[in-house]
Amino acid sequence: MMGHLEETVKSLLRRRSMSMRQLATATGISVSTISKMIAGKQRVNLDYLRRIADALGVPPLTLAEAAGLPLIKEPIGPTDGDRQTSMNALLEYLGLGNLNVLRTEIERELEKYEAYAQTEEGRQFIAEKYLAKRGQIQGIGDFLRDLDDIYDRFSRPDTPEDERRILASGILYFLLATDAIPDYLFPAGYLDDAIAMQMVRERLARRREMKDQGAEGS
Description:
Blueprint: H1 4-15, H2 20-27, H3 31-38, H4 46-56, H5 60-66, H6 81-93, H7 99-117, H8 120-134, H9 142-155, H10 161-176, H11 191-217
Helix pairs in contact: 1-5, 4-5, 7-10, 7-11, 8-10, 9-10, 9-11, 10-11
């Protein structure tokens, strides 16, 4: 029985008067691999799915949904149990463990970027790249508001240098980190960036708490 992904791809091929061989040429993926993947005989490769979607002129999310991937249709919050369960399913599918594992990986990246933010190269990179990349993204709600706020606070001359480094780590994560989840799996694709912004806020809160405790003890 023809699967939903296979049916969708073959319908799009007919609509565009394309053969499977032409699709293979356009994507750089062999006919055999495409056939096995869309028929469910081998695991869906997200990069291949994106290439096939581009060649067929449809959003990658269309094929991701047809493949039955455990996608999230709306941004998740801390109390969205059902959607967090679905997100864990997606992360497991992608070989990324779960949300806790993802947070651990993001924390490691933020620590690395905080060190980079202390260099002239890191500060120059933010100055040259941030506004251009930020302008490419629209309408992602809380994630963008957090990102804009972090950049605004980073840019203020009265922001303490230790806090500026933490803020810069979040900006550099947005600019440099390899996305754990493909961005086209919107809004799930921005989950790691959103978590990074949340963790920047948590790190700022801890830093200020340590300062307050130091002031009280002096």
